[in-house]
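We emphasize that the prediction below concerns an isolated chain of 225 residues; any contacts that depend on oligomerization or on bound cofactors are therefore not represented. The input was used exactly as deposited, without trimming of termini.
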Amino acid sequence: NKDDNGVLGIIQPIGIAYREDLVKKPPKSWKDLWENPEFQNKTGLYTITNSAGMMFLLLISKIYGGSEHKIDAGFEAIKKLQGFKQVDFSGTMEIMLTRGEIVTGPLDAPAVARLRSGGAKIAFVAPEEGVFMFEQDFNVLKGSKNKELAFKYINYILSRDIQEKWVREFFISPANRYVKIPAELKNDITITGEKMKSILTWDWDAANDRRQDIIERWNKEISSK
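Result of the prediction step, given as a token string:
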């Protein structure tokens, strides 16, 4: 992490999920949410208070404005998606997709893999512009009195054996580069190895400085419409 203040231990790439049985033309790009008429009024997006909602705004600002810092462009683009359903958590997005209340929306790859393993006709796409992620970071406090034990715990989290178990149980993209994806899971866990570079990261210091203003603007210009 920035300034070496921790490491990523659990990575859940977020791309576009869609209903295979309800969509004729699968998405390839984030822009397809705007350009594919099949998705009109049938797209789910996270609320701005969910970190995925904030990351989506930064992503769309980057795509339509050239920079994650040009959020006016992001807001204007998202306004054109009016008619989308807002969800609070991934569980809500999963339910709406499963029920067919929406046919597409941002969702993490492990959630899609879990739903598919249960028989849902939902697929995952890593858009050509890149994906973002839910992440679980692990840190050791500077003033900790048990640093050595904490470091051992983090090493345990990052170990190949534990990461492989999490891959099989939770479909995560492994943080340990030496983990090999089982053959039977390669269609479900596609963001690994060199493809990990497709995961976009953000200037969270700048985003968090504007967080309250962004939330208020979202509530006024997006949620209230």
